[in-house]
Amino acid sequence: MLLVALIGAALGGSPKITEDVENGVEDFRDWPLQTISEGSRRGSSTEQSDQIEIFNITESYVTQVTIELRWLDEAPDYSNFENQPDEFNFTVYTPWDAEIGSIGDFNAIGAAGQIIEIIKVPEEGIEQSSALGEWKINIHCGNCGDQTLSRPNAGVLIIEDNGNDWTLTFKYEFHTNN
Ligand SMILES: [Ca+2]
Ligand SMILES: [Ca+2]
After folding, report:
1. How far is the CA of 114 from the centre of ligand 1 (A)?
2. What are the residue ranges spanned by the domains of the chain?
3. What is the average pLDDT value for the chain, to the nearest integer?
4. pLDDT tier, 65 (very low <50, low <70, confident <90, very high otherwise)
5. Distance in angstroms (rounded) separating the CA atoms of residues 44 and 49
6. Spatial contact of 48 and 178, defined as CB atoms under 8 Å apart
7. CA 135 to centroid of ligand 1, rounded, Å
8. 75 alpha carbon to ligand 1 midpoint, in Å?
9. From the CA of 155, how far away is ligand 2's center (Å)?
């Protein structure tokens, strides 16, 4: 290793390239990055519930994974009501047994909610393709704000909101020479 570094330095070139040539193998770090999207999954959660979704990574040398959860609260049943925000978060269980919790968030009234989590694979994990295999995502639906009258002094009439639909997308970036 030391010898390789010295040769590289003496020739004024990059030690890494010298090492690659000497070993007769390419270094995956020199390969371009490509992104694969596993597409979007739609589902529905009831208030205060957990739901597991599983994605499978089949490529080596994955550098990072991006998971996005989006939801849009139902439109109010009547024009004088507004639908109060719904709450979501998720926890990711990686193939190398890390547990990563996203932030929790509420949507703004009338707007979509969105949580994006970017998980960087540790350097030695990229080399060992630790991201290969099953990625388990636990989607947690928390409090779902009910529909309430939008005018002040209008009483306490509510229309219950018992959950929400969501869309989950999973994509990952990896080095490849294909
Ligand atoms: Ca709501
Ligand atoms: Ca809802």
Report:
1. 15
2. 1-30, 35-175
3. 88
4. very high
5. 10
6. no
7. 29
8. 9
9. 21
DSSP label at residue 30 = G
Q: How far is the CA of 141 from the centre of ligand 2 (A)?
A: 10
Distance 37 CA to ligand 1 centre (A): 29
Question: What mean pLDDT comes out for the span 112-135?
Answer: 97
Question: In terms of CATH architecture, what is 35-175?
Answer: Sandwich (2.60)
Q: What is the largest CA-CA distance in the chain?
A: 83
Model pTM score? 0.83
Helix (H, G, I), strand (E, B) or coil at 28: helix
Q: How far is the CA of 151 from the centre of ligand 2 (A)?
A: 20
Which residue type occupies 103?
A: I
H or E element that contains 10: helix 2-11
